[in-house]
């Protein structure tokens, strides 16, 4: 596997199966902490930015996206925007 962007390390669905764990039933554990950013809201940020771009409301190197959060969503948005604007991984 060759990765060309940190966003390539975002797994939309990454689960670990515990076979026959609870009364003979399989239990699936979602592994959010294995993302490049840990468990911050990276998938939400990617979705928000992609939606803005798809609707023509945001364009790389032209638009400024402002988020009032200083929490996980703000951090995730800053990562996504930095990657898209700098084209470091294009």
Output the keywords:
2 helices
Description:
The mean pLDDT is 79. The longest helix is centred in the last third of the chain and has 15 residues, at 72-86. This protein is elongated. 31% of the residues lie in helices and 16% in strands. α1 (42-54) packs across α2. It is of the alpha+beta class and 90 residues long. The chain has a two-stranded antiparallel sheet with strand order 1-2. A hairpin with a 2-residue loop joins β1 and β2. It contains 2 helices and 2 strands.
The percent range for helix content is: 25-40%
DSSP strand content: 15-25%
* Sequence of strands across the biggest β-sheet: 1-2
Terminal CA distance: 17 Å
Element-by-element helix/strand order:
EEHH
Name the poorly predicted regions. Answer: none
Number of strands: 2
Give a short summary of the structure.
It contains two helices and two strands, in the order ββαα.
Topology of this protein?
Layout (H helix, E strand, L loop, with lengths): L14 E8 L2 E6 L11 H13 L17 H15 L4
Antiparallel strand pairs: 1-2
Helix pairs in contact: 1-2
